[in-house]
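Section 5.1 Outputs to date
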Amino acid sequence: MRVYPLLERYFRLDGGAMHGVVPRVLWEKKHVPDNRGRIRLAARPMLILEHDRGILIDGGIGIAYDSKFIDIFGIEEGPGLLGELQRIGVSPDRITDVVVTHLHFDHVGGLWDRDRNFIPERAVIHVQKSHWEWACHPSAKDSASFVKWQIEKLHTSNLLLHDGPYDMSGAVSIIPLDGHTRGLQAVIVKDGNDEIVYPSDTIPTRAHLNLPWAMAYDNEPLTVLSDKEAIIKRVRENAGRLFLEHEPHEPWVEASELK
């Protein structure tokens, strides 16, 4: 098995929204905002190659938006998913499965190229049933996190809905969490004695390793807090590693770094 961390591109979100109730005087020491109050974040999918399967976790934010959207979210030109696959010498046809942690645009938009052609066109798309239903009928609070054309295109794709935890393979398993959004999928990757936890937006950056530091985007912040506690405890006890999807600097967190 081979594990490839990818860097699809960088983008920006409001620093206050990313840190919820944490005062700016504290969070700006971790993430320096621009003159519009936004902080730079990464979109980091992960690819796991096994003998007969290629499992992609998320797709990044992508670039297939109008100029206003790109400006608001500071979406940068970058390699994109195609560029990252080319960098590691992997064809899109090698991707058999895509685990979408959740359907917010900064996690799923990169599955399409600039012309909205689906990149992993032969892959099965794995989503929690509860999350799919939520994304199709979101609340007023989080409806802006879902892009209509992306949901519509996935509706006609090779979509497989799950109801609860499941194993993708002997090495990759999925744990649903309901804090950030209903039916978010955290991913556990086991490679020999190494265990990697991909917590998605439950712990988006290193700053969010602090338990009270939760995003205003979270639908259930107290659930996020308990989920973070459980994830950090697991990584410590198993001497594993975290891979933080939106961390703009070093995304790998070793168990020894966790308090």
